[in-house]
Amino acid sequence: MIARRALLAAPMLIGTARAQQGWPDRAIRFVNPWTPGGPADLVARPLAQRLSDTLGKPFVMENRPGANGTIATALVGRAPADGYTVLFGHAGPMTISPVFQANVGFDPQKDFAPVTQLVSSPLCMVCRVGLPVHSVPELIAYAKAQRQPLTYGSVGPASTTHLAGEMLARMAGVTMLHVPYTGSSAPITDMLGERIDFGFFNMGAVMGHVTAGRLRPLAVSTLKRSVALPNLPTVHETYPGFEVNSWYGVLLPAGAPAWLVQRYFQEFGDALRRPDVTRLMNENGLDVEATTPAAFAVKIADDLKRWRELQAATGIRVE
Predict the structure, then answer these.
(1) Distance, CA of 45 to CA of 51 (rounded, Å)
(2) H helices of 69-124, where?
(3) Average pLDDT value for residue range 223-248
(4) Are residues 301 and 218 in the same domain?
């Protein structure tokens, strides 16, 4: 019986070995859900260039913006699982939109094979300099003492910048007023003008103002402190379990063979660990992760659980 099983398995093993030896034999699509020239490109393009070099075939960036990243994400979820279509994944379309938005066109856990979380992207919690607080506990104590709720800006409903404020308010047991905008420039300008009180924003959007003393940093939103601001505490240090991580990662369509997932995990990990690439990420407020496929799958599941609990508690929905 053992010999018979070995004979039956032999052709499969030979076929797998041949597939690995001959792959890749053509250009690979690296599908990016965001517009060219944005923050996502800063992460994706140096990695795409590196993989073009190491794989020996063009690793071609394909920007497919629209519907908060869900169009590109759904496209990859429907693609053949042969390794020639790769998703530059993001926390927004992968774990937030499926919870707060109906009919995104894919299942984040059934339609994809996680490869690696490339980087963590902390949000920086900042406040206007006229607000008499210098830490998260001070902000919460001040908020509870006011007759009117503190205001916080976001880049739009159900964005990480909105959900971070909502999560903080719930964990702290305090009412805060959400002021939605359509990008980060306007709320930051209003904070500089002392018109709104605080907000959570990407490091790159606020770092110049923080360095110049025009905005006061209070905390970062990830579980670990940021490489960019190592002395700044996390919100998690005050409210354990608080996490809003606007990560980037790599995923393949579901059904991709294990050897292919492992090959991409190694290739992207090697690219991220290059000193010049690591330095570029850190200079832009990103922390290199290069997690295993299994760890990335757990991260996605944990995020989905966190957002589903918040959605059930708040009823937040976007069309």
Answers:
(1) 10
(2) 70-77, 91, 97-100
(3) 96
(4) no
* Alpha-carbon span 150 to 155, nearest angstrom: 17
Instruction: Report the C-alpha gap between 58 and 72 in whole angstroms.
Output: 20
Residue 33's domain comprises 27-121+245-314
Q: Are residues 229 and 141 in the same domain?
A: yes
DSSP 71: H
Q: What is the pLDDT of residue 168?
A: 98
Q: How far is CA 157 from CA 115, 164, 178, 266, in A?
A: 29, 11, 9, 37
Structural element, H or E, at residue 266? helix 258-272
Residues 174-202 have pLDDT tens digits of 999 999 998 889 999 999 999 999 999 99
Asked if the structure places residue 19 within a domain, the reply is: no
Strand partners, 199: 126, 153
Full DSSP string of 145-180: H-SS-EEEEESSTTSHHHHHHHHHHHHHT--EEEEE
Structural domain includes residue 1? no
Of 200, 215, 237, the residue at which a domain comes to its end is 237
User: pLDDT tens digits for 236-286?
Assistant: 999 999 999 999 999 999 999 999 999 999 999 999 999 999 999 998 889
- Contacts (Cβ under 8 Å, ≥6 apart) of 273: 288, 290
Per the structure, the count of domains in the chain is 2
CA-wise closest residue to 251 among 112, 118, 96:
112
Residue 282 placed within a domain: yes
- For residue 216, what pLDDT is reported? 98
Domain match, 148 and 182 both: yes
Q: Higher-confidence residue: 129 or 8?
A: 129
Q: Give the pLDDT of residue 121.
A: 93
Last residue of a domain, one of 217, 237, 257: 237
Whether residue 47 contacts residue 272, with contact meaning beta carbons closer than 8 Å, is answered with: yes
Of residues 270 and 318, more confidence is placed in 270
Residue 11's pLDDT is what? Answer: 55
